[in-house]
Fold this protein.
Amino acid sequence: MKPDEAFAKQGVLEEQQRVQATERKLTENSKTQIRQDCANLRRRQEERENVDVLPKIDLADIPLTRPYPVYHKTKLANGVPVWQFNQPTNGIAHIRIKFDVNSLPEPLKKYLPLCSE
C-alpha cells in the first residue's frame, strides 16, 4: 500500500469545483443575502458577550461533605462478604472482585491479567 501524493491536491480541486458549481446556481439576490448574513455574523461574533446572564456558583453552593454511597452488604453461602452499590449505568454491568489467588495453579496465573484492570 502506497500513499497517493496527489490525494490532498485532488480534494482541494474537487472542493473548488463544487463551490464554483454552487456559485453558478446562485442568483444575485441570493449572493446579496449571503453577503449580508456574513456581515451580520461577523458583527455578532465581534460583540462583547453579556456574561451576567450566565449561571454563577458560589462556594456556599458546594456542600462541605459528600454523601456516602448507599450500599447493601450480604454474604455468600461460604461466608464471603459482598457489597452491592446500585448505580444508574444504563444497563452496563461492572464488577470488582478481590480474592486470594495463592491457591490458583501456577499454569493458570499467566491468564490473570486478562481478567483484571
